[in-house]
């Protein structure tokens, strides 16, 4: 298996622009997670999907952030409009979803976002 | 709110040395604890997953222990190698499926 795939790997944009990050989870995995990693705050969970349904989006920082999972093999995280403080590495992770509390999560390589 | 602390923040050791990384958490009501490795510019790789009912897990030169009552876990690396150089992250899994991460320990193993 190719593992969790994320695109783009790097994104540089200007403040106010829309940014869309993409994720393809491991085939057969039913749970998908979006995380953000910064030096100050470390890794934080933004949103969790199970069977394509958002279960918990309490970690989404504000309304500028939105996430979708239209099917089992694709998810997007959108920031509109982007701000410099959104600069971070965004990770997508997936797990089997049969017993999510006891499963390993598999992480993608991340998207490094820089908002100027 | 669960808080996870990792000490030290950075560690540098000579090749061949045995070492211990520490992780502490504030809420002992956990489902599991995981240790991850993160290489520069890359994602996280799961090393060991300890269920709340377990005391330790081993994989090759790695051994992780869990003491729920004291809110502590250790990752023991035997006979360290330069290829072990990375950031090691501890993450605690709660009943709400969320993983709470520590900020990591940056390990450098010098040849």
Strand-helix topology:
The complex is a heterodimer of chains A (about 120) and B (about 110).
Chain A: E1 5-7, E2 10-13, E3 19-24, E4 31-38, E5 42-50, E6 53-56, E7 65-71, E8 74-79, E9 88-95, E10 106-107, E11 111-115
Parallel strand pairs in A: 2-11
Antiparallel strand pairs in A: 1-3, 3-8, 4-5, 4-9, 5-6, 7-8, 9-10, 9-11
Chain B: E1 4-7, E2 10-14, E3 19-25, E4 32-38, E5 44-51, E6 56-59, E7 62-67, E8 72-77, E9 86-93, E10 99-101, E11 105-110
Parallel strand pairs in B: 2-11
Antiparallel strand pairs in B: 1-3, 3-8, 4-5, 4-9, 6-7, 7-8, 9-10, 9-11
Walk me through what this model shows.
The complex is a heterodimer of chains A (116) and B (111). In chain A, the strands form 2 sheets. In chain A, strands 2, 4, 5, 6, 9, 10 and 11 form a 7-stranded mixed sheet that branches. A 4-stranded antiparallel sheet of chain A has the order 1-3-8-7, with no helix packed on it. Chain A contains no helices and 11 strands. The model of chain A has no long low-confidence stretch (mean pLDDT 92). Chain A has 116 residues and is mainly beta. The N and C termini of chain A lie far apart (36 Å). Chain A has strands at residues 5-7, 10-13, 19-24, 31-38, 42-50, 53-56, 65-71, 74-79, 88-95, 106-107, 111-115. Chain B is mainly β and 111 residues long. In chain B, 0% of the residues lie in helices and 58% in strands. Chain B has strands spanning 4-7, 10-14, 19-25, 32-38, 44-51, 56-59, 62-67, 72-77, 86-93, 99-101, 105-110. In chain B, the strands form 2 sheets. In chain B, strands 2, 4, 5, 9, 10 and 11 form a 6-stranded mixed sheet that branches. Chain B has a 5-stranded antiparallel sheet with strand order 1-3-8-7-6, with no helix packed on it. Chains A and B meet through strand 5 and strand 10 of A and strand 4, strand 5 and strand 9 of B.
């Amino acid at each position: 298996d190719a593992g969790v795939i994320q695109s783009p790997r790097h994104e540089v944009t200007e403040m106010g622009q829309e940014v869309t990050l993409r994720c393809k989870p491991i085939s057969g995995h039913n749970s998908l997670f979006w995380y953000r990693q910064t030096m100050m705050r470390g890794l934080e969970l933004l949103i969790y999907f199970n069977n394509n349904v958002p279960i918990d989006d309490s970690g989404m920082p504000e309304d500028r952030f939105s996430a979708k999972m239209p099917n089992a093999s694709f998810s997007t995280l959108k920031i509109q409009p982007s701000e410099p403080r959104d600069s971070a590495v965004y990770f997508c992770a997936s797990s089997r979803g049969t017993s999510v509390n006891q499963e390993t999560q598999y992480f993608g390589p991340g998207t490094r976002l820089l908002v100027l | 709110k669960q808080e996870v602390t990792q000490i030290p923040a950075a560690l540098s050791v000579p090749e061949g040395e045995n070492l211990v990384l520490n992780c502490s958490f504030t809420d002992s009501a956990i489902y599991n604890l995981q240790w991850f490795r993160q290489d520069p510019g890359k994602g996280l790789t799961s090393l060991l997953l300890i269920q709340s009912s377990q005391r330790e897990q081993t994989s090759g030169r790695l051994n992780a222990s869990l003491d729920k009552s004291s809110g502590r876990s250790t990752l023991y690396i035997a006979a360290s190698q330069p290829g072990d150089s990375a950031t090691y992250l501890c993450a605690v899994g709660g009943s709400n499926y969320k993983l709470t991460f520590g900020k990591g320990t940056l390990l450098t193993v010098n040849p």
